[in-house]
Amino acid sequence: MPPMDMEIRTYLLYILAAVSLPSLASLLYGQRHSLKSTIPPFVGTTNIISSCLTAFKLQFSGTKMLHKAYAQHGNGVFRLPSFFRWTYLISEPKLVSEMASAPEHIVSFNGGLEDVLQTDWTIGQDVTENPYHTPAIRVGLRNINQYFPQLHDELVHAFDDTLALQNHEWKLITVVPTIMQIISRSTSRVFLGLPLCRNQEYLDLTNNHNMRIFFRLTDSPYLPKLPETDYRSADHDSQECQIERDVGHEWPDRPNDLISWLLDFAEEEERTAEALVRRILTLNLAAHNTWMSLTAALYDLTRYPEYVLPLREEAEWVVADQGWTRTSISNMVKIDSFLRESQRLSASGPIGMARQIVAKDGFTFSDGTTVPYGSFLSVPGHNVNTDPVVYENPEVFDGFRFSRMREGCSGSREGKEGSIFTRHMVTTSPNHVVYGHGRHACPGRFFAATQLKTALAHVLINYDVKAETNGIRPQDHEFSLFKVPNTLGRIYVRKRV
Ligand code: HEM
């Protein structure tokens, strides 16, 4: 097991606490938002006591109850009780798109995020009020060709070092800490380069910081101490910032990394080491989802071993023909489909895409439904991803579901239904909200998809994997309305000869 300083059981406790604390906070300080509304409630009552009781029951059997509600009200908007307030769930695809494309001053992404993660407290108001890191990452991560060689190189070394396999022996590994280490190392290689991406103290600090945020332990004045010897931003103020003040953004040997991407967008008060560290930690938090997706994909691959051969053949064929490049990874259509299917079923929790209505007049959907000022909106993620109207056998894992769809497409580049681009891993829709949808759809998804596909292709070509127990997939942890891959799940892995 990699030397992460956080025991996996502690991590599990963190998750438990992370899902129960917001409910408690909501109970104590919750928005006493009107319980009266014309929108159908989740259960047939709107009185405060039974709503609180339902909110309590949701903590224990949220997924099941939500499933029932979606079957009943899945074609519009319905209300889910939290303690002393409602969450409005938007399920009809057209309305999901309307909510997702509404401007921030009407339907607020930041308001939703603050409700879910108490971001003003955990990340800091300066970050939430001025999220300039989002356009910075959108632009910085755009040219995948440029940093692909480093990403691939780090994945290869990280798998090798972390798995530490001997000869041809099977080794039983706990997937979460292993994959967390590999993903954070390869992400850090692109974000901040060598040698920091291999500095275990730095990796542990960022991963533990993420856990603290989920646990609501971090307050704004708090910042973990990063290893100063390696941390380029520590002397950023005196060196790079001075250079940029003198000559602007264009100077010889300017590093193409996260700090430079941030500096392209940062206002004067953001151009300090501490402020930059805060942004780096925030983006590490956002990138945290990637290890969950790779963990889920490995659970699926070992649960359904019939996919190993065709996926391996594709990876070997493409690499033999085109080598390891960003373009060759894009040509791995079956691997793309397998990962998209794995994410469809595992990556969206019961609810997601949290938003808050901040327009004083509320927000009116095209079907006439009005949600009032101050209220909280979400999309029932797992339900829309498994809507039987859109997906055949929606709960069945069908790894080539999307590659089959792409085979039948016209190949036009127009991005309409029927074009080859509608079923890529990175394509969002109101019925595939793994990366959200609309205005705030994840800007890191092109990078994450490339990272995930490269990692899976590398595993298929270089390792054999099998389930700890044949036919059993470690069950996702589900608490309340949250879901994460099983943190204790194990699989066997060995080097291929
Ligand atoms: C498999 C990996 C990932 C998944 C499943 C994922 C998922 C998401 C989701 C669901 C959202 C919210 C979208 C919405 O509410 O409409 C989001 C937003 C975001 N993600 Fe990702 N993400 C992943 C990887 C990454 C990576 C690698 C980065 C890079 C730093 C990143 C950066 C962001 C940022 C900055 C936002 C906020 C966007 C905004 O404010 O408009 N994500 N992501």
Order of adjacent strands in the largest pleated sheet: 1-2-8-5-3
Name the poorly predicted regions. 1-6, 24-36, 217-238, 411-420
Please tell me what the overall shape is. globular
Ligand inventory reads: protoporphyrin IX containing FE
* CATH homolog superfamily: Cytochrome P450
Mean pLDDT: 84
CATH level 1 class label: Mainly Alpha
What topology emerges from the helices and strands here?
Blueprint: H1 8-29, H2 48-73, E1 77-82, E2 85-90, H3 93-101, E3 107-108, H4 109-117, H5 119-129, H6 133-140, H7 144-163, E4 171-174, H8 175-192, H9 200-214, H10 240-247, H11 258-263, H12 273-287, H13 289-303, H14 308-322, H15 326-330, H16 333-346, E5 352-357, E6 363-364, E7 370-371, E8 376-379, H17 381-385, H18 401-407, H19 445-462, E9 463-467, E10 477-479, E11 482-484, E12 490-495
Parallel strand pairs: 2-8
Antiparallel strand pairs: 1-2, 3-5, 4-12, 5-8, 6-7, 9-12, 10-11
Helix pairs in contact: 4-5, 7-8, 7-19, 8-13, 9-12, 13-16, 13-19, 14-19
Bound molecules: protoporphyrin IX containing FE.
